[in-house]
Design brief:
The protein is of the alpha/beta class. It is built from nine helices and ten strands. It has a ten-stranded mixed β-sheet with strand order 3-2-1-4-5-6-7-8-9-10, with helices on both faces.
């Protein structure tokens, strides 16, 4: 049997819950072969409240990683933590020069608080250089607000407004992840294809063990697209996958709890509604 091959350009989470570690676990669970181009290595300090330290990989090394992967032939790719405008440009160049057409952009942004990005110039580069190349772009509420240049997103109607604006940037599909801050009784995600909206709903899970959820979700979409699934079906499977992963998240230590990518295979999807 020939396995589908996928590439992730993202950071390495030393604690194992997010980044390329989450990507590879998800790829494995969904039956595709994952390859990684590391942009950064992130470590955590157990002596200082798990504070994060970020060690960027040189762009020369990043480019040789990508060259290695591209030479094998890939069926889909995703991006995660990119870290600099130069790295964003490398990702965009890779997509364009190799005519890659199954591309999931997870526009990872870091905010200072509720509504202020740490590196607004990187958000602009993501918006201008990568979003237009996306088959699917997968922002959370904060990221969607930054890309759409609207106000804070609190309702499904706000999500729809932002999705239209992001789609106008050039992405074929926009998936806005609702998360816990959305004013809705369910865990709601919204997909927009330029013509219609599709809501994916599941029961809310009251947990703090959600580390890596965004990476896992976008990785699951990437895996399913690589296998030839239509985007709406790929998102449905990914929603099932992340719902199970969050339902079975666990405590890693006193600071963090990751989701469990193996839960979908082991326990099933759980309750899910879509319309």
């Amino acid at each position: 049997m020939t396995m589908k091959k996928v590439m992730t350009i993202a950071g390495s989470d030393t604690s194992g819950g997010a980044g390329i570690q989450a990507d590879l676990k998800t790829f494995q669970e969904l039956g595709v072969y994952g390859m990684t181009a590391l942009t950064t290595i992130v470590t955590m300090d157990p002596k200082n409240n798990w504070s994060h330290n970020v060690f960027p990989i040189s762009t020369d090394i990043l480019e040789t990683q990508i060259e290695t992967i591209i030479s094998t032939g890939i069926d889909a790719m995703k991006t995660g933590m990119l870290g600099s405008e130069e790295v964003i440009k490398i990702a965009a160049k890779t997509i364009k020069e190799n005519s890659l057409d199954h591309v999931v952009i997870d526009p990872v942004m870091v905010c200072k608080g509720e509504d202020e990005p740490i590196h607004p110039e990187l958000n602009e580069a993501l918006r201008d250089l990568l979003v237009p190349l996306a088959t699917v772009v997968t922002p959370n509420l904060f990221e969607a607000w930054q890309l759409a240049k609207t106000g804070p997103i609190k309702t499904v109607e706000d999500m729809k407004e932002a999705a239209v604006k992001i789609h106008e940037l050039g992405a074929k599909y926009v998936l806005i992840k609702g998360g816990s801050k959305l004013q809705h009784e369910k865990a709601v995600d919204l997909l927009y294809d330029g013509q219609e909206f599709t809501l994916y709903e599941s029961e809310r899970v009251e947990t703090t063990y959600t580390h890596g959820a965004g990476c896992t979700y976008s990785s699951a979409i990437t895996a399913e697209i690589a296998k030839g699934k239509p985007v709406k079906e790929a998102v449905q499977t990914a929603k099932n996958f992340i719902t199970a992963a969050i339902n079975h998240g666990f405590k890693l230590n006193e600071y963090v709890g990751p989701t469990m990518p193996g839960a979908y295979r082991k326990y099933g999807a759980g309750r899910l509604e879509s319309e």
